[in-house]
Amino acid sequence: MTPIIEWLRPWEPSAPVFIACVLAIGLYASGLMRGARPGFWPALSYLLGVGLIYAVTQTHYDYFSQYLFAAHRLQHLALHHLGPFLIALSMPAAVLAAGLPQSVRHWPQQPALAPLFTALRVGYRIIQQPFIAGFLFVGLIYFWLTPAIHFDAMLSIDLYWFMNWTMALDGLLFWWLIFERGDRGITPRLTPGQRILMLALIMPPQIALGAYITLSKQNLFEIYDVCGRAFPIAPLLDQQIGGLITWIPASMMSVVAAVIILAFRLEQSNDKR
Hints:
Largest sheet: none
Number of helices: 15
Helix content: over 70%
Number of domains: 1
Low-confidence stretches: none
Strand content: under 5%
Number of strands: 0
Radius of gyration: 20 Å
């Protein structure tokens, strides 16, 4: 088997992740075929975001994520930050809605399903309140990097996939709130200042956690010693690289997002002239 094919094979296949990625691409493609025109760059951003989530979970990269702390942190950078960031930045709601079968679009109006969709809307609006969304975004990073919890998550395949799902879904919720620009929908509308404030507030906790992991002289994540590392690398060096990934790239995503929000604001101001 060629190295490329070997790399593309999932290390531990996950049917739910595979189905979710296929549905995400399929619905988007259906929306495009039905006349939705998001533009080249939004479409590229969406496809890259979904592709990145797939690549770090359903290819051989997942092996390294389970046997190298630095690779694990890169995986979660993709699942929680970069992948959802690119998807939300593309604002795909209109394209995805256009891709839905006609019968599915009427589900919220059906009497039997209406209470369920009402409850989902209420729950969505609650967790998308700025304080709650920001707390969940940072809190999940801390939770899954608590050494004892991380140890269990990397030993249990079910808990491992639950961890990855929570990171990806929370990333989508957070970045969707940050980049939402439409006048319709149920996502709370924030001013540019509120969005930038949120981004500023989530930076210090991520910097603090990344710095703690990087500068610690103690081997915090012994699970990678128990199971063995993918590469012959010193435990503290692996931990330091992973800490730097948690510290710098993850925090810089807030800066990039703030610049994009300011660019959106300038674009709106120019359109009004």
